Structures are given as C-alpha cells and as structure tokens.
Amino acid sequence: VSGDISWAMKLEETLTDFTFVQNLPGKKIFLKGNHDYWWSTKTKMDVFLKNNSLDTISILFNNSYVVDGYAICGTRGWFLDNESQNDIKVLNREVGRLEASIQSAVKTGKEPIVFLHYPPVYGTTKCDEIFNVLLKYKIKKCYYGHLHGKKNMRFAVEGEYEGIDFKLISCDRLSFMPILVR
User: Fold this and answer.
1) Of 37, 59, 81, which residue sits at a domain end?
2) Phi and psi dihedrals of 96, rounded to 5?
3) What is the DSSP letter of 51?
4) What's the domain count of the chain?
5) What pLDDT is attached to residue 5?
6) 3-state class of 89 per DSSP?
C-alpha cells in the first residue's frame, strides 16, 4: 500500500482502519504517504501492530521484505520541484531512506521492486535525486501512488521510461482493486 492509509493524526487512532485492512486477504506492506500524519518510528509502529494482533500488516521504512521471489523496498519520496531549504532537507532524507531500503533489498539476493508514494517522474518533470537512485541500482520496476483524479493522472508516467517500468497504483487509478505485482 503506497501511502495515504489512514486519516488518523496519531498512531493509536489508526486501529479501526488497520483492523479493516488486517481482515482483508493477504499480507499488506505499508509505505508512508503525505497524509499519514500518524506515521512514527518503525519500532513504535511494529510494537503497535504486534500489541493489536495486526499480523498481516508490515511497515516499509528503511528496510525491505522478500515476497514471492522479489525484494519489496521503497520510501515516500518527495515533490518533483524542490525550491525551499526545508523541501531540500526532506528530499535528501528521502533519498537516504530509498538508498537504505534498496540496499536492504539487494542484500537479499532477490530482484528489488521499488514502491514510492510520490511519482519520481510526472509528465516531463523528473525528481532527479530520486530518479538517479533508481538508475544507480538498476531498478527495473517502480510502483507509485499519490495521484488522484483524471486531471492529475493524465500526466502519470506508466510503462517503460529510461529503462524502468513505472506503474501508477493509486486507488483512483486501480478503481480500488488490488493488482498483482510481478
């Protein structure tokens, strides 16, 4: 799930939403979105999941998971245009998180598949800092969310772009239906 999981403001307030997701079939891996204000440290979130018997949910945050022969990795990412000092600071932190997650995936020996919340490329605009990490590690597949509504989705980059296969997986794009990732 590539972000925007719950409108809750605090982790404890996510229980109803997480319980709903827990009861859906399959294993779920959560990635932070721009509306996930409840997001905390991985340790705190893992403890919360364990204490509430939410055992079909895992948190992707500076790490990776092996699923069906692939290594799932990624991070939230950041805006395509970064002009303020704060945006640059957040972007650099996200670049570091993406690198840490991909490095974790590479150590598994499985093919890394990257998930991001923000698109690394949109129309003719690219977030070079994020995109260059994808190229550095020779990522072949990248799934992303964030874009909603036909107006915003029309410039979504899908299919091969500079050797990477991109897929928009926001709930609007998928009509709220999960897709098989391969």
Assistant:
1) 59
2) -65, -40
3) H
4) 2
5) 93
6) helix
The domain in which residue 162 lies consists of 63-182
Residue 27: φ, ψ to 5°:
-90, 135
Q: Which residues, 6+ apart, have CB-to-CB distance to 136 below 8 Å?
A: none
At residue 32, the 3 state secondary structure works out as coil
Residues of the chain with pLDDT under 50: none
| Residues 6+ away with beta carbon under 8 Å from 41 | none
Question: What is the rounded distance in angstroms from the CA atom of residue 14 to the CA atom of residue 49?
Answer: 10
- Are 140 and 168 contacting, i.e. CB atoms less than 8 angstroms apart? no
Q: Are 109 and 67 in contact (CB under 8 A)?
A: no
Alpha-carbon distance 110 to 170, whole Å?
25
Q: Are residues 142 and 156 in the same domain?
A: yes
Stated pTM of the model: 0.94
Domain boundary among 25, 59, 93: 59
Cα separation, 121 vs 144, in Å, equals: 10
**Tens of pLDDT, residues 153-162:** 888 999 999 9
pLDDT in tens, 16-50: 999 999 999 999 999 999 999 999 999 999 999 99
